[in-house]
Recover the amino acids of this structure.
C-alpha cells in the first residue's frame, strides 16, 4: 500500500481499521493538515434520524382537536419513538420525561386521582364489624 502523505510503500499491520499512513509522523501530518484546512474529521457518524413530519390532514386534525386529544396524540407518538430501535440512546431520557409530563397532564385533565387518593377512599359510615 502507499501512504497518503509521503507516497511511500508500507505493509499494513492487518489489525483494526485499514491503515492509510506509513507511520505515526505521517498520520500526525495528515491530522495537522485537516485542522489547518478546516476539513471535518474523517470519523463517520451515524446519520440523525429524520424528524417525523405531519402531513396537512394530520396537522389540521390536530388543530381542530381539543387539548386532551392533542395530548393523547403526543403520548402515542412519544411511545412509538421510545419503542423505535433507531432512536438514539442519548435521546431516550428526554423523550421519557416528555412522555411522563404528557401523561401527568392527561391524568390531571381527566380528573382521575392517584392510586391512593384519600378523597376517593372516604368512609361514610362504620360498616366494619367489631370483634368482641
Amino acid at each position: 500500500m502507499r501512504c497518503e502523505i509521503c507516497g511511500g510503500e508500507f505493509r499494513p499491520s492487518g489489525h483494526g481499521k485499514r491503515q492509510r499512513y506509513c507511520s505515526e509522523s505521517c498520520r500526525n501530518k495528515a491530522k495537522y493538515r485537516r485542522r489547518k484546512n478546516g476539513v471535518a474529521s474523517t470519523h463517520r457518524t451515524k446519520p440523525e434520524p429524520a424528524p417525523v413530519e405531519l402531513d396537512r390532514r394530520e396537522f389540521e386534525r390536530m388543530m381542530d382537536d381539543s387539548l386532551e386529544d392533542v395530548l393523547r396524540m403526543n403520548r402515542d407518538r412519544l411511545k412509538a419513538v421510545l419503542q423505535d430501535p433507531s432512536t438514539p440512546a442519548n435521546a431516550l431520557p428526554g423523550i421519557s420525561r416528555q412522555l411522563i409530563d404528557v401523561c401527568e397532564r392527561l391524568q390531571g385533565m381527566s380528573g382521575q386521582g392517584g392510586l391512593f387518593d384519600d378523597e376517593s377512599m372516604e368512609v361514610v359510615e362504620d360498616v366494619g364489624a367489631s370483634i368482641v
In short: The chain has four helices and no strands.
